[in-house]
Write a structure and sequence with these properties.
CATH superfamily: Winged helix-like DNA-binding domain superfamily/Winged helix DNA-binding domain
Strand order of the largest sheet: 1-3-2
Helix content: 55-70%
Oligomer: single chain
Distance between the termini: 36 Å
Radius of gyration: 21 Å
CATH architecture: Orthogonal Bundle
Number of domains: 1
Structural class: alpha+beta
CATH class: Mainly Alpha
Number of helices: 6
Length: about 110
């Protein structure tokens, strides 16, 4: 015997509730916005492959087609989004993937069912 439309309407929720609260979306939006650029993705890939930190000189050597100020801009975007950390040592800056960012991206993937 099939359930009537009326009884299903009484038990079904009127709307779908998202596990993602509006206050959480800003942080994810900033991360995803920073990752929505080929150069920044390339830098993240380089840092991930290094499995540690890299000197900015190594990053500049990898992204040869861009000027130093443009690379600095991309690194700033990644830093502000919380995707990378930086540490100045003398005249060089060393960058690494922020472990907290990896966890936040994993949490976001889980929200999507991944």
């Amino acid at each position: 015997m099939s359930e009537s439309l009326e009884s299903r309407a009484k038990t079904a929720p009127c709307c779908v509730r998202s596990p993602l609260r509006p206050k959480d979306t800003k942080a994810y939006a900033e991360i995803l916005k920073a990752l929505a650029d080929e150069t920044r993705l390339s830098i993240i890939g380089l840092l991930a492959a290094a499995n540690g930190e890299l000197c900015v000189c190594d990053i500049e050597a990898h992204v040869k087609h861009l000027s130093q100020p443009t690379i600095s801009h991309h690194l700033k975007q990644l830093r502000e989004a919380g995707l990378v950390t930086s540490e100045r040592r003398g005249s060089w800056v060393y960058y690494a993937i922020d472990k907290g960012a990896v966890a936040r991206l994993r949490d976001f993937a889980n929200l999507l069912g991944g």
